[in-house]
Amino acid sequence: MTSVPCLQARGLTKSFGALAAVDDLCFTVDKGEILGIAGPNGSGKSTLFNIITHIPFGPTAGEVLLDGEPIHGLSDIEITRRGVVRTFQREAVFASMSCVDNILVALEQTLGVRGKEAQRLADEASQTVGFPRNFHNQPAGALTVFHQKQLMLTTAVAQRPKVLLLDEPASSLVDDEIERVREVILRLNRQGITILLIEHVLPLLTSVSNRLLVMEQGAGIAEGDPREVIRDPRVIEAYLGAVA
Prior knowledge:
CATH topology of the largest domain: Rossmann fold
Number of strands: 10
Strand order of the largest sheet: 6-7-8-3-9-10
Mean pLDDT: 95
CATH superfamily of the largest domain: P-loop containing nucleotide triphosphate hydrolases
Strand content: 15-25%
CATH architecture of the largest domain: 3-Layer(aba) Sandwich
Helix content: 25-40%
Number of helices: 9
């Protein structure tokens, strides 16, 4: 008996007028897998995350299945409640609010959880991610870029994802911070979270991913073992020689 993929995209498409930002994309992700997603700027990677989660818009055509059940017609909050949670490429925090209130507001809005239960989830996620507990009462806008990224990830983890979509969690970070991101990704995966990872830091992407999907102009041009995919002539051409 064939197992059902944890997440599956069938003919996933997002068009803006005549432009197909995501073009008839198909892929599967097994439970407990880390799927890396690479591609040059403008290849449709973040748009893919947008249409999977309906934040801020859904697909023009195609299907997204979670454990074999369609979710592409659901609202963003319902998709989150089903267990598909994302982070964003840019540091997206409420700068004037405390760090813990950033987490608690998200939990109330998406899961309808508040009070002691929300605080428990915030504390557990902070410990898992390594976000300092003594930062909880600081304004989120006062954090460094690294700690803002940690806060975004903590907020996502607090929402108890089955599938976690990470959009460039290592961008703008230095080497030791990137290593900490790598450790957290692997830790979350060991805890049973399936991960889709968009990242331009290729050493990080190839070191944690079980498989790599490379996009170009909204379509998938190569998929498979990361070490083999980055040597694919189509991938090298897409990156204009940036990947060797």
